[in-house]
User: What shape does this take?
Amino acid sequence: MAYLKWLQVIVLALVGYHWWQKHRDLLVTDGASHAAGSTGFVWMPQPVGTSPYQVLIFAPRNCPSAAAQRARELSRELAARDVPHAQLEEANFDLDSAEGAAAVKRVMEGVVPIVIVHGRAKANPSRDDVLTEYEAARR
Assistant: This one.
């Protein structure tokens, strides 16, 4: 009988560990919300040397690809709305934790353009998602 109780404790511990591995990014906050909001943007470290007050658009310049064209169109639309932004081809991150490195990898491996708004990022967001995230960050 004692054997079954220990077996239950071990199984419960394994289930709890497995659940923690799947959900820790949503629970550990590091001062910012890691969970995706209504626009799908998630926490990501700010690239070194960039302003947190600018919308950052990562995409290749002078490229005829559809992704680069989407980035240029987004840049034009942000400029028309006087939203401070910059289009970049590369970035450096000061990654002091495995969590930060995982966040950068997860987002930057997505479909271009990658957009960062006040420390929250999304791969290939719509214009409306970017504007919604920008306005929410200003409040």
Q: What stands out?
A: DSSP finds four helices and five strands in the chain.
